[in-house]
From TrEMBL:
Methyltransferase among keywords: no
Pfam families membership: BetaGal_ABD2, BetaGal_dom3, Glyco_hydro_35
Organism (species): Streptomyces cynarae
Protein name: beta-galactosidase
MF annotations from Gene Ontology: beta-galactosidase activity
Amino acid sequence: MAMSRRTFHMITGTAALGLALGGSGEVHADVSAPTGPPPDPPRADGRAHTVGFDRYSMLVDGRRVVLWSGEMHPFRLPSPSLWRDVLQKMRGHGYNTVSVYVAWNFHSSAPGHHDFTRVRDLDLFLRTAAETGLYVTLRPGPYINAEVDAGGFPGWLTATPGTARTSDPTYLGHVDEWLTAVNRIAVRHLYTRGGGTIVLYQLENEYANHVTEAAGRDYMAHLYDKVRADGIDVPLFHNDKGRNGYWAPGTFDTGGERGRWLYGFDGYPSPFRPPPDWGYFGPGGTKGGSTASPDTPGFLAEFGGGWFDPWGGAEFGGKGYAESRRTRDAAYERRFHLTNLANGIKIHNVYMTFGGTSWGWLPAPVVYTSYDYGAALDEARQPTAKLVPMHQIGHLLHTVPELAELDRAEDVDVGGGPALRAYHLVNPDTGTHVHVLRNDSTGEAEAAVPVAGTTVRVPVPGLDARLLAAGMSLGRRTLRYSSAQPMLRLAVGRQDLAVFTGRSGEVTTTVLECAREPRVTVLEGDAAHTYAQGTLRLDVRLGGLVRVLVEGGGVARPLLLLLADDETSVRLWPHHTPSGPFLVHGPALLRTAQRRGTTAQLTGDTVDDADLEVWAPPGVTEVVWNGAPVPARGTASGSVRATRRLPGAAPVRLPALTGWRRRAESPEAAVDFDDSAWRTADRTTSYATTPVPAGQPVLFADDYGFHYGDVWYRGRFEGAAGAASVSLAYVSGTQGLLMAWLDGKPLGTHRMPVPDAKTVRRGTWSATATFPIAPGDGPHVLSVLVRRMQHDEDGGANDSHKAGRGLVSVAFDGASPAVRWRIQGEAAPDPVRGPLNNGGLYGERHGWHLPGFPDGDWEAVPLPRTERGQGVVWYRTRFRLAVDPGTDASIGLTLADDPARAYRAQIFLNGWNMGQYINDVGPQHTFVLPNGVLDTRGPNTLALAVLADGTTPSGPGTVELTLLGRAAGGVPVTLVDSPGFPSRSL
Ligand code: IPT
């Protein structure tokens, strides 16, 4: 039969290796029936599982699974409780996999030191993903890019010898320590052993620059060996930067284990051009085309579900994430993902699905604090309209596994003009046909698709796409075709259930094979039906939830057809449980469902008042929602329906922020400031890629152990009489600045120019600031504050993360005094909030950002406020929130002021650095304050470190709490530890 022509040599995992590794040793492998029902959502069930693949798809326990994955970064959500919220929202909306980078710099403040506690608790994240029923793709680098500082390399790595991302032995030594630490956790969560749900593991990231060199090939082979030696037995892969064929199976040494290595690639196509064909099914694909890896499933390790936004307002290239979400909207998602599906992609990962926040000093210089990304779930954890296609396609792929095994079928002419593109695919075992119809023009087009001897007319809106299925099983009955898009099929209780979707108002035709005439009841909505020649035809106008019950006609099991418009489709929640599947209709989110005797125990969210209707396993007659019984009764649809609506979210009132206290700092500028404890800047060599000018000591902050945020220098000199100016060369990354004082008097501020869309990725930002001076012979003190932005990423594998940061050199015009420098950056890393929380401002070094700092003697001031001066001024206040315990309120801090004012603010909430606001650059004004860091039912401390150029008046202007979303429900939130003053780190 069909199975015999397939090979399953690529099955990996303990079971496939025949190893008895504790536990029950039970093997769930049924390789003879990969097209059968999908495997249940994965859990940490303590059993051995096989994780393999063939050229079509992943095979989990021998069952076909399309991975429909979303990327999220735990390190961009510093509140572990909320990981569960995001993961549950992903699962509810049809994702079956979460892909995560692990950022080395987030976990490592010093060589050999790796911290996986608190907000860095990878083990907890992996447990939560397993509890949520999601597969995991783990991507621990060592290099990750990801728009984080140094592409994820720790700050200390910049001060080490050897070229990173090569086989250099020093680098590999550090890498091995990192991987040992990550893998020690990861092995406990491998799905192969049932300890967790990791099914894929990535080596490196878009590694394209040393592909043909021994230094690159040996490096990849080393990573492969290391990860295998650490016990990672799931398939490994790399994400090629485009379909180049780099690191395809067989191109480097994988210890003879060719079959356990997947080829993956990344795609970030322009939303303004038609989606590309990847060439999986033959020539004509982009670059490597079908030859890239014909024996492994089409694998998009990253596919752009949005895009990152650079600093600056629209005129500089930064447009804000609303724009990103507008250009990659729901129709974009449908058009591009359905094209990917039509191109044989069976492992999808949408980068990002929840972008989150690059808090503290995490963002690479190219981006600002928000990493919202225009993703389907926004930074404030709110679902957006982009989830509609993800939800519909995700649930379809999960409940109709035939779609995991599709061959290209003969092209069909669908008319509709040149902009209407049609892809035709067929499952070789079941004969299910799939047509993907894509409209690349802006006006609506009609596709005329030949199906089963007739022509199905399908409207495809401009710049949109539609999937049409024919010959698809709906359980006991078969769909001949439908012009509405299938979303799921489930056998629930005593009936089969199928959901079809489309835009509201669309007129759709659905035809079922029915050898004998069935009984048809339109239970709700605008539907007409006719029976003729062995087929039942339903003509349905979409709007709300149309229900048609099909019974009899020689088939014992009834079929309930639900036709939902888009809006309604995301209120339909299939949920697979060990007692069978559920389908829940009504609420804004279904988080969990389980059967307890005759009761359906459900948890989830409502925003507005909502219906609650449940299709559940047989015998379920009662419903409990978020712990409270809901009166309900059985319906003609075979469901149990609440007799009253669930209440929506309670209103949330946010207090005004008042009671501000102000204190100026920057005492480092004063002549008599005591800097005797500061490091002497006397090094003569550096591993930085920025040259050290002859005759000058090394001044780069990283060489003195200061890796993040602001850094101070104090230089003493004599014999400068006659000097007309002093020139300070510095390197900072985009948006950096330098301010200087001579003997306590401001010399001025130099700022890196605001980049435009073209220059923003230029990388290193270096400049020379020249200030006129008229010193006497001395002695003199030159105080310099450099706002370093972060280290460059190292996408080109050329050590660009080692570009210097801080001062480079000093020169005088008309004199040449020797300057003796001392340097001070951040204090010892905050052991709780992590190495990226703080820079080296005086206030940070002395705990002014921490809760409980005694600010009673600070000046009480109202905001908004205007003052003028060069340097740093702090503002602190406290506020108390009292959000209703059943409400998940998502809250932000919004700053606004006259955009001509040249100042910026570092925002500290309960000591946590929530990001940087640059008043005259933007575009970000609202900063998400994650619950857990924010106490929504208690007191909070807010501190702003305002750094002003002195060239204009500065603020703060208005500073307000803003409500970014609310729901009744949510997840229980445990507050993160937020140690106050005095802190042991100071
Ligand atoms: C690709 C990276 O792999 C990922 O880490 C992230 O940087 C992403 O892009 C952009 O957000 S790099 C590719 C787009 C050149």
